[in-house]
Amino acid sequence: MNYYLLVYGVYLPVTVLLTIWVARTLFKNGRLFLVDIFHGNEQLADSVNKLLLTGFYLVNIGYATLTLRTTEAVTSYQDSVETLSIKIGTIILILGGMHFFNLYVFYKLRNRAQEYARAYHS
Hints:
Structural class: mainly alpha
Transmembrane segments: 6-27, 48-66, 86-107
Low-confidence stretches: none
Protein name: Integral membrane protein
Mean pLDDT: 88
Keywords: Membrane, Transmembrane, Transmembrane helix
Strand content: under 5%
Number of strands: 0
Organism: Hymenobacter metallilatus
Radius of gyration: 19 Å
């Protein structure tokens, strides 16, 4: 049996599904932050949200595709599981890192928008 194909056959669908799940969660819940940042301009917030979603997909699925290849010998089911745990664990960490990066960007943008609003209304 070709264990590399087993690893690839599990790795790609799992990483794509994880990426889609995280992206949809960010897209759905990030909208409120963007509407607030853009002072209620829902059309602009939705547009930026869609651009962020597209970039998120491109970065994560691109990285998952780039890291598909493995240099380790995969000659058994045990090797397959170990290789998958490293690859999927790495993707999960990257998705988590991008999630916190997005939260940080939203936080900074919201603070900047609030400071601007305070200065404008004073």
